[in-house]
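This part of the workshop introduces the protein records we will be handling. As an example, a complete record with its sequence and its structure tokens follows.
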Amino acid sequence: MINNRWLAPVALLATTLLLNACAPLIVGGAATTASVAHDRRTAGTVVEDQSIELRIRSALNKDPELGKQAHINITSYNGVVLLSGEAPTSAMRERAGAIARRDKKVRRVHNEIQVAAPSSMMTRSSDSWITTKVKTAMLSVKLKGFDPTRIKVVTENGTVFLLGLVTHSEADAATEKARQVKGVQRIVKLFEYLD
């Protein structure tokens, strides 16, 4: 029998994982197949994006300074890479961008790493909560054919990054919903447009 005091935190964690698309990595192939069915990227591109993230993470971890002193998140969507997080110096920030650009499958790099000390666990938890709230808000978009699972949401220190293959009207609707979420300080649109 599950203790009731754990029910809310477990439900919150499960919701966060599902809304952040981490669940396919946890539950396996069936969930991956379901998520790819809604994605505008090909299945091969989805897998390649995951591989890009792993290769860049591995390369960053091999750098003795970046691996130990920086907090860098890597998000790849359709071969476009977003680097977010913090690095203590501008030289380290630039080095991380150069490492990401070396990957042959990367089409473009958006280096949004801030020159600062790594964020606290409290800030990272707040960012995860903001991401969850933004994804939840997008469920209420009233636009024919709009599928919120096609938009990747990344939050870093209150800044929300939006990625995806979308139409201009989908981008506008998603951005407006994100703008209404409490805690969002800034929105950066990194969409690729279909129209």
